[in-house]
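Q: Here's a chain of 363 amino acids. Please give me its 3D structure as tokens.
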Amino acid sequence: MGRAHVFIHSTRPQSVKYTGLRNLGPRHDDPSRDDPELMQDVLGRYALHFHHCDDGSRGSQIEGVVARDLGAHAFVPHVSHGTSWTSCVAHNTKDFAYWWDPGDVTDDTVFDGCVASSVTPNSPNIYVNGGFLFGGGAPNSNIVRNCVAAGVQGGGFYWYDNHVSNVWQFRDSFAHNNSGSGIAVYQNDSLPHVLSSFTTYNNGEYGIEHGSYGNAFRYEDGVIAANHLGAIGVKAVSVLGDDGVGLVFARLYCDASGKDYAIALPDGSAVKATQPTTIRDCEFHNASKSAISWFRRDGSTGDAPWADISGCRFDGNELWLARGLSPSTRIRYASPTRGRVNVKPLGQPGTATPEWNAATQAA
């Protein structure tokens, strides 16, 4: 017997509560793949799928639904506005558990207290996979709060839709024990994305992996610890956001767990920075080399690093500049012990500060 799916295309709100969904999401051979043994999901046939209901789905309540052992995505509100998903669980699924069709717009969705666990990709060669995907919708109309992504083969919470506006309210959520990064961003825009009050730990890559080229995300009030590659890996530069703010890391507790750096930033990207990356009021622990570092990124423009750092606390060395950074580097650092200084690569005018591989000048 084949797998079934639940397909809702209605002009009236629906109520789906305290229901178990199992062995749904049909799959078929994909002849385009190199390995004929690999299967893929059947387009549109997901465990619980609201399909193009538009405003007809407003007021729909999905509560306490457990979808497990699936061959496809678990929960998909596809161009179906105003649905609320409370205390739902997607476990042992294929591909993103909470899926958003790239380029399409869905508004006023709430995922509250939901779980994505044991999520695997269709193929071990699939690069993008995760628990929750953040796709298009009216700014701040879609909400993820009090949610958990755990045991995902890929990223826990994932942003990578550059075709439409996808600014979500994201807060009070946890990502742990995922093979990729807890939070993974591959976004290029100037939209004011704000991620707040989150915890990421024990992930196979970073607590936050922030890319891809340039954007204006803000990370606030998070706890990041015990991630395999370090707390935060930054690949994007800061651009002027639509609200006048660039890339910001604020009030974060970052434990590097013995890795070289807690947060590593690039010397440039495929686009030019138009704002400094701001790191303020953060707390850094257990970095073996330094809390904050800059590295040379292959394929970047080789721009000078540009950052403002203030109000942070450290239990070890604060900064490290890789060799070969541009003399035009603009790093401004302020602390009670060092005062306000401009930081340049070692060998530039100023006071040699070998522990930072840098020279400093009073600001």
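Q: Can you summarize the key feature?
A: The mean pLDDT is 93.
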